Amino acid sequence: MKALLAFEAAVRLGSFINAAESLHVTPGAVSQQIKKLEEELGVMLFYREIRKLTVTETGQKYYRLILPALEQIRSAGEKIRYSAHHQLTISMPPGLAAKWFSPRMSDFVRAFPGLDLHLNATAALVSLETDNVDLAVRYCSHTQAQPGWIRLTDAPCRLFCHPDYAARFALNSPSDLTNVTLLHTTLYPYWDAWLRQHAGIEPGETPLPGGLHFDQILLAIDAAKHQQGVLIANDFLVEDELAQQTLQPLFSDLTWQPGKGFYLLRNRHSADPAMVSEVSDWLHHSFTH
């Protein structure tokens, strides 16, 4: 088995040195294992030249033959490792985790008693297989969505602000927004599009007050709650603020549909596919009801 792993790593990484680093052994150990494998097979797997390692045609054929088996062995190991109890890792953006999932966590626990849940709150790209993530929720355009991704919601965006802020600046029509602070976020960078469609304001044509820019929607929501400006967001991210009346919709019939939505991605190689399926159904139902 060690010889097969050394051979696979050497082909994949292109050198004995890189293979050794990947396997946490010495280059000499990798070379010895591959030489042993060549002797057992009675064929040459690599052409060895100074500072150059080339896979022979026979080596390439052997690599293609053993790769599925090695992947199956790795997968079996992962399944055995996690089979002792139900464990699930879900990745979702921090704002969604805090503002949508957290209030529903008690319902989730009741629905899945005994589940060992790992919540990874990040908007960064993840590799479901490499990072051992079973489910991931990501915000992307509909044209970027891949087959098999489940659309959880494509609800339009609206404007929100504190009721006292709306009263103080007499926000009765979209044109009044030229007198207020606009709260910009990387998640919803739609102010130019909203103003163009609903207020007839082209970027750069009408002077606007300086805005506040946030890379986290949580900070922008908090700023809006504290009467620091007007925010673009989805309703489900400000449910608590709407219930407590620390935020209110502004021009609620004037929405913006960016052609994006929150999608659910499933790891096809999860160690517990039945649990992944059940949690997927729960997330989809919770978003749509």
C-alpha-based Rg, rounded: 27 Å
What structural category characterises the helix and strand content? alpha/beta
The fraction of residues assigned to DSSP E strands is 15-25%
Number of discrete helical segments: 11
How many domains, as an integer? 3
Model regions low in confidence, pLDDT < 50 over at least 5 residues: none
CATH architecture of the largest domain: 3-Layer(aba) Sandwich
Helix and strand run: HHHEEHEHHEEEEHEHEHEHEEH
Give, in spatial order, the strands making up the sheet with the most strands.
4-3-5-12-6
* Overall 3D shape: elongated
Helix proportion: 40-55%
CATH-assigned homologous superfamily of the largest domain: Periplasmic binding protein-like II
Query: Count of DSSP E strands?
Result: 12
For the biggest sheet, the summary is: 5 strands, mixed
What CATH calls the topology of the largest domain is D-Maltodextrin-Binding Protein, domain 2
CATH class of the largest domain: Alpha Beta
